[in-house]
TrEMBL record:
Name recorded for this polypeptide: Simple sugar transport system substrate-binding protein
Family to which this protein belongs: Belongs to the bacterial solute-binding protein 2 family.
Chain ranges of the Periplasmic binding protein domain: 44-302
Lineage: Bacteria, Bacillati, Actinomycetota, Actinomycetes, Micrococcales
GO molecular function, one term: carbohydrate binding
Subcellular location: Cell envelope
Species whose genome carries this gene: Microbacterium invictum
Length: 330
C-alpha cells in the first residue's frame, strides 16, 4: 500500500512541476489559461530618469497610455544610473510582473539581468534606447527611433546650408550621455553625412549628458578654447538650449553668429527655433506609450510582434516651427 501512495505522490509532484514550468515560460501568464484580463496584467517600467524635456514627455505619455488601457504600471526613475535600472528590473522580477519594459540608459551591461528576466519567464520590451547584446532572445522587441538617421538628417541640413561655401566650417558637438545608443548613433550618422564636404570639421566634441546645465557648461568651455565656432550640433534640445545661454553670455547671437542644430523638437526647443536662436531641429518622438501598450496587448493575446519597431519622425525649419508650435503636444 505504502508503495502505491508514494508513486501517486510522485506523479502529482511531477504534474505540478510541469504545470509550473509551463506557467513560468508563458509570457504574460499561463499559456493554457489564455490571455489575462487587462486589469490583471502588471507591467514594470524602468525609466532612465528625468534629464530632459523629452524624457518627461516620454514618461507622461507612457503613464497615461497604461492608465487609459487599465493596465497596472509599476514605474521607477533611475536618475540616469544603470545600477538603479538594474535594481528596478530585479525588483520587478521578484514581484513576478507579467512584462518588463525599459529604456536602457547605456547600450552595454544588460545581459545578466535580462537573463534573469528570461529565466523567470518575463518578456522584456526595449523602448527608446537599444542594448548591444548579441543574444536577441533577451528581449521581445525594440520600439524607438533610428538615431543614425537622425544624425544623418542633421548633417544633411548642414550640407545644404553650406553648399556654396568654400571656407572651413568649424563645428562643435554636444554629445548625449556617454555610451547611450542615441549619443553613439547620432554622432555616427552626423559624421558620415558631413564627411561628404571636406570644409566641415568637428573641432571639439564632449558630452553634456543630455541636460541643459551640461550643455551650457560644455559650451562655455568650447567658447573659451575655440575663438571661431560656426556651428553647434547638440544631440538634444536641452543641451542646445544650454548652449544658447552660454553663447548669449559671451555676447554672441545664437542662430546667427553661431548656428545651432538639435534633436528632439520638444516645446522649448521649438520655441527657440521659432525665435531664430536654433536653426534646425530633427524630431525624435517621445510618444511611445500607445505603441508599447499595443505590444503588451498583442503578447498577452499570444500574438507576435516585430523585433524592431521604428517610430515615424520629421524635421523642422524655423518657419515650420512657427506653424507647428500651437499644436505641439509636448
Ligand atoms: C532619444 C532619447 C534621448 C533624447 C534626450 O530617444 O533617449 O534621451 O534625445 C533624452 O532628450 O534625454
Amino acid at each position: 500500500m505504502k508503495k502505491l501512495i508514494s508513486i501517486a505522490a510522485a506523479g502529482v509532484l511531477l504534474l505540478g512541476l510541469a504545470g509550473c514550468a509551463t506557467d513560468s515560460a508563458a509570457p504574460g501568464g499561463d499559456s493554457d489559461a489564455g490571455p489575462k484580463a487587462l486589469d490583471e496584467l502588471v507591467v514594470g517600467f524602468a525609466q532612465v530618469g528625468a534629464e530632459s524635456g523629452w524624457r518627461t514627455a516620454n514618461t507622461k505619455d507612457i503613464q497615461s497610455a497604461f492608465a487609459d488601457a487599465g493596465i497596472e504600471l509599476k514605474f521607477s526613475d533611475a536618475q540616469q544610473k544603470q545600477e538603479n535600472q538594474i535594481k528596478a528590473i530585479r525588483s520587478y522580477i521578484q514581484q513576478g510582473v507579467d512584462y518588463i519594459a525599459f529604456s536602457p540608459v547605456v547600450e552595454t551591461g544588460w545581459d545578466a539581468v535580462l537573463n534573469e528576466a528570461k529565466a523567470a519567464g518575463i518578456p522584456v520590451v526595449l523602448t527608446d534606447r537599444a542594448v548591444d547584446s548579441q543574444d536577441e532572445s533577451l528581449y521581445v522587441s525594440f520600439l524607438g527611433s533610428d538615431f543614425i538617421l537622425e544624425g544623418e538628417k542633421a548633417g544633411q541640413w548642414l550640407l545644404d546650408e553650406y553648399a556654396d561655401t568654400s571656407e572651413p566650417v568649424n563645428i562643435v558637438q554636444l554629445e548625449g550621455t556617454t555610451g547611450a545608443a542615441p549619443a553613439i548613433d547620432r554622432a555616427e550618422g552626423f559624421a558620415e553625412k558631413i564627411a561628404e564636404n571636406d570644409n566641415f570639421q568637428v573641432i571639439a566634441s564632449q558630452t553634456g549628458d543630455f541636460t541643459r546645465a551640461g550643455g551650457k557648461q560644455v559650451m562655455e568651455a568650447f567658447l573659451k578654447s575655440n575663438p571661431d565656432i560656426d556651428v553647434v550640433y547638440a544631440h538634444n534640445d536641452d543641451m542646445g538650449l544650454g548652449a544658447i545661454e552660454a553663447i548669449e553670455a559671451a555676447g554672441l547671437t545664437p542662430g546667427e553668429d553661431i548656428k545651432i542644430i538639435t534633436v528632439d523638437a520638444v516645446k522649448d526647443g521649438m520655441q527657440a527655433l521659432a525665435d531664430g536662436k536654433i536653426n534646425f531641429i530633427v524630431e525624435c518622438s517621445p510618444l511611445l506609450g500607445d505603441q508599447l501598450v499595443d505590444i503588451i496587448k498583442t503578447l498577452n493575446d499570444g500574438g507576435t510582434v516585430e523585433k524592431r519597431i521604428v517610430t515615424e519622425e520629421t524635421t523642422f525649419t524655423q518657419e515650420q516651427a512657427i506653424e507647428a508650435l500651437p499644436d505641439r503636444q509636448y
